[in-house]
Amino acid sequence: MISQLIEKIKKTNAPICVGLDPMLSYVPEHVVKKSFDTYGETLKGAAEAIWEFNKEIIDHTWDLIPAVKPQIAMYEQFGIEGLIVYKKTVDYCHEKGLIVIGDAKRGDIGSTSAAYAAGHLGKVQVGSNVFSGFDVDMLTVNPYLGTDGVKPFVDVCSSDDKGLFVLVKTSNPSSGEFQDRLIDGRPLYEWVAEKVMEWGESSMDGAYSNVGAVVGATYPEMSKILRRLMPHTYFLVPGYGAQGGTAEDLKHCFNEDGLGAIVNSSRGIIAAYKQEKYKQFGPEQFGGASRQAVVDMVNDINSVL
Amino acid sequence: MISQLIEKIKKTNAPICVGLDPMLSYVPEHVVKKSFDTYGETLKGAAEAIWEFNKEIIDHTWDLIPAVKPQIAMYEQFGIEGLIVYKKTVDYCHEKGLIVIGDAKRGDIGSTSAAYAAGHLGKVQVGSNVFSGFDVDMLTVNPYLGTDGVKPFVDVCSSDDKGLFVLVKTSNPSSGEFQDRLIDGRPLYEWVAEKVMEWGESSMDGAYSNVGAVVGATYPEMSKILRRLMPHTYFLVPGYGAQGGTAEDLKHCFNEDGLGAIVNSSRGIIAAYKQEKYKQFGPEQFGGASRQAVVDMVNDINSVL
Questions:
Q1: Above 90 in pLDDT, residue B223?
Q2: Which residues in B lie closer than 8 A to residue A113 (C-beta atoms)?
Q3: Which of A79, A119, A174 sits opposite B148 (nearest CB)?
Q4: What is the pLDDT of residues B95-142, one digit of tens each?
Q5: Which residues contact B292 (CB under 8 A, 6 or more apart)?
């Protein structure tokens, strides 16, 4: 899977993904109103508004980007109706040829992780049939439970040609509380990084492994070290834009050849129309604002590579 | 919420919860067949078989127990259809007066955790209405991202009278890979425990906090230390039975007064009919086997308290 992602990154010359993390407050009023008029002020009304919002953004950006990263929490908050729209979004992105990174940060004991892996990445057997529940291409995974909690996801990467990004150093302000604590002189995130490489060895796909790492843009000194430590691990880099990470901050996430990282932006793209910079588009042309924000982000990042 | 759980534990004299973690392979053939005959060998067919299975087990055990713990992964593996049955199970358990601990192990950066907290524990605003997506009473949470990833869940505990169990020391074989590593002479899980207590201070509910901890039954020496360290923290204890933890192993999870812990059993209860010990029930009476397994588990645990 990682080789497919790399191919698409090269083709688009855009080492980025668009985070489809819609808050209802990001959705322009006319879209919300239309959905509420049809479905009422209900979970379905909210979910359908998000679907129309996503669709417009995808329609305006798909040809510029290799991948999207829907954050499943933003759909789960609307219960079943939200998850129906998550799945619809995944399927629509696939129709458009995009790689879908499900940002779910799942992780549990072995047998439970196997169920998550089957439901999100792989297939589940029902009688003599097999089905894919959510069918994303890559998934974010939490490492706190150790090898037996991650291994079932890695197995599906190998059997079904899928990919992972395991949380190593996250972008949020308090990520250091546990992740930065020193163990035998090295921060916990480096020990996690070592394990990510070990897990990844069994699912190599060209120069990189299908088992990648989440490395936040907001801690440039740490990503520099992690880049050197993990030469064959692709990084999913959150924290650019709204969370404070700049292109300069994240250039060390890339290898010399300009590969090795894919940078996510969510709010900065999908709610671009709300920014002063893109206000000429107005809420009616929010898709156009998102497209321009993608172009600007790609230029910004490529300028430091 | 924790005071409600304690009240129900006292009333039933059963410090246990039943893990509603159905694998399709646990569901007796006649139940699966009936569902496949109606819905086909489809995701809906699988999900409905699990629903009928859950319902029978709940009907046979609800009066003996304070709580259930559905593992959401087992439902997610069947996609939307599975999650519809997860929700149906949560609602049915509520009708029966049970406290529902959603075992979801969610955790992300702040704004994303807020969405998970709203969807699983709290409420989401849609226009002038509010809705509960999944509406469980308590939720398991992963601490790897630190305070800002956990705080939104704690806030909902306080605002909506809900509860959490934060992963501290998990029951799986490789839990020690990161959790046991020493930081300034103390294992990571103790540092997490310190934070859990800190988070819990803002949501006390009687003698205990609404912010509990997951402490596996499979590491008795560690749970002994954690029990002393966290006197006001309720423990959710997985690992009893099928995972190898015995009543003797987990007695140190309890305080002197017999409170302080709730022990989960999943396979040992819901697939009891498959055990030699309960074979007189047969697959047709699998609910009866589960009931007897609950009685035996409660006696076993109470024998060491």
A1: yes
A2: 73
A3: A174
A4: 999 999 999 999 999 999 999 999 999 999 999 999 999 999 999 999
A5: B272, B278, B281
Q: Among B27, B76, B153, which would you mutate to test the A interface (most chain A Cβ atoms within 10 Å of its Cβ)?
A: B76
CA distance A189 to A176: 9
Let me know if B94 is exposed, middle or buried by CB neighbors in 10 A (0-12, 13-18, 19+). Answer: middle
pLDDT above 80 for A242: no
Q: Which residues of A are catalytic?
A: 105
Q: Which neighbouring-strand residues pair with A169?
A: A215
Of B280, B172, B151, B80, the closest CA to residue A107 belongs to: B172
Rg (CA), chain B: 19
ipTM of this predicted structure: 0.97
Phi/psi for A282 (5° steps) reads 75, 165
CB burial of A170-188 (b: ≥16 within 10 Å; e: otherwise) equals bbbbbbbbbbebebeeebb
Q: How far apart are CA B221 and CA A169, in angstroms?
A: 30
Residue labelled with tokens 């890979």: B177
Which chain B residues touch A236 with a CB distance below 8 Å? none
> Cβ separation of B36 and A167 shorter than 8 Å?
no
Minimum mean pLDDT range among B11-20, B73-82, B112-121, B214-223: B214-223
Query: What are the Cα distances from residue B203, in Å, to A35, B3, B39, B156, B268?
Result: 38, 12, 45, 10, 33
pLDDT at A20: 98
Q: B41–A78: do the CB atoms touch at under 8 Å?
A: no
Which two three-digit tokens encode residue A47?
Answer: 């979910």
In Å, how far is A210's CA from the nearest CA of chain B? 21
What is Dmax (Cα atoms) for chain B?
60
Amino acid at A105: K
Phi, psi of A236 (to 5 degrees): -100, 120
Q: What domains are there in chain B, each with its CATH number?
A: 2-302 (3.20.20.70)
